[in-house]
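Anyone up for a design puzzle?
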C-alpha cells in the first residue's frame, strides 16, 4: 500500500512567481541530491510554466553535468513538431545535462516504451507535474486504459485530443522522492480543490508519492479562498 501523500500547498502571486519558486526548488533539490548521491534525477512535464522555470534556472547554481533529465510524457509526433514537448524543452536544457527524450518516433512504440523504462532511475529525486482542466496529469488522462497500468513504468495511451502519448505511469510517480506540482490559471481551480482533497476520481488525485509540493498562482487558488 502506498503511503498517504503529504501535499503541501504554496500560493504565489502569479505565474512568473510560480516559475521563480520552481527554479529555486529544483536547484536546491539538485544540489542536495548531488551532495548525497552524486547525481540528480529529474522528470519534466510539458507546459508554459516549466519552460519559464528553465529560463529562471539559468541564473541558479546547478552542477548540470551531474543532472539527468527525463520526460514525464510526450505526444507521438515527428521530431521538431510543435506538438512535441521536446521541441520547447530541448533548447532550454544546458548542454552539460544528460537529457533523455522519449523515443516516440520509432516504428515499434511498445518496444520503445519498454526500452525507455529501462533507462529510468530506480527512484526519481524530483518529478515535475502539471494538471489539465480535466484533471489529467502526465498523459494519465480520464477514461484511458493507461490509468490502470501497474506492471510497466512507461506506457502508451489511446488517442487523446487527436494524438497518442507515451507516459510515465503511476508506479514511477509514486516511488519518486518528491513531486512538484506547478499549477496556474483560474481554469484549474475546480480540479485543484479535488487534487488537494486526494480525490481519486481525477487522474491527478491518484498520484500517491509521499512528498508532494503544490505550487499555484493566486488565480488557481481562487476557489480555496471562497471555501
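Challenge accepted. My sequence:
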Amino acid at each position: 500500500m502506498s503511503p498517504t501523500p503529504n501535499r503541501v500547498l504554496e500560493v504565489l502571486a502569479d505565474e512568473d512567481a510560480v516559475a521563480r519558486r520552481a527554479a529555486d526548488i529544483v536547484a536546491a533539490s539538485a544540489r542536495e541530491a548531488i551532495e548525497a548521491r552524486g547525481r540528480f534525477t529529474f522528470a519534466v512535464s510539458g507546459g508554459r510554466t516549466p519552460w519559464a522555470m528553465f529560463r529562471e534556472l539559468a541564473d541558479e547554481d546547478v552542477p548540470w553535468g551531474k543532472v539527468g533529465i527525463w520526460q514525464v510524457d510526450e505526444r507521438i509526433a515527428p521530431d521538431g513538431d510543435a506538438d512535441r514537448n521536446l521541441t520547447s524543452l530541448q533548447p532550454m536544457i544546458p548542454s552539460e545535462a544528460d537529457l533523455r527524450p522519449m523515443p516516440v518516433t520509432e516504428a515499434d512504440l511498445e518496444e520503445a516504451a519498454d526500452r525507455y523504462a529501462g533507462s529510468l532511475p530506480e527512484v526519481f529525486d524530483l518529478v515535475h507535474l502539471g494538471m489539465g482542466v480535466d484533471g489529467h496529469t502526465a498523459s494519465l488522462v480520464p477514461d484511458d486504459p493507461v490509468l490502470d497500468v501497474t506492471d510497466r513504468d512507461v506506457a502508451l495511451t489511446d488517442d487523446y485530443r487527436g494524438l497518442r502519448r507515451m507516459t510515465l505511469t503511476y508506479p514511477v510517480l509514486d516511488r519518486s522522492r518528491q513531486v512538484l506540482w506547478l499549477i496556474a490559471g483560474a481554469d484549474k481551480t475546480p480540479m485543484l480543490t479535488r487534487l488537494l482533497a486526494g480525490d481519486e476520481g481525477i487522474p491527478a488525485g491518484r498520484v500517491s508519492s509521499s512528498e508532494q509540493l503544490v505550487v499555484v498562482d493566486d488565480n488557481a487558488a481562487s476557489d480555496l479562498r471562497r471555501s
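A detail worth pointing out: Residues 6-226 form a domain with the Rossmann fold fold (CATH 3.40.50.1360).
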